[in-house]
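Human: Respectfully, please carefully check these tokens:
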Amino acid sequence: DKDYKVSKRIMEINPKHKIITNLKNIYKNDGANIQFTNIVMQLFEGGLLLEGYLKSPVDFVNRMYSILENN
């Protein structure tokens, strides 16, 4: 049905969560670091995956491997 509208998705972030505080520290030290960007994208796409909206699971998995190899 062309009149059917999907609700807008909202990603809520708890600024006190350990992951977010760690990301804040990484960004303060080197916000241009590719690892920072990869981790943020991984968090975002992880939310998409949980909701069934992830369009490229291959990119998601490859990024995960890259993050794990570099830590």
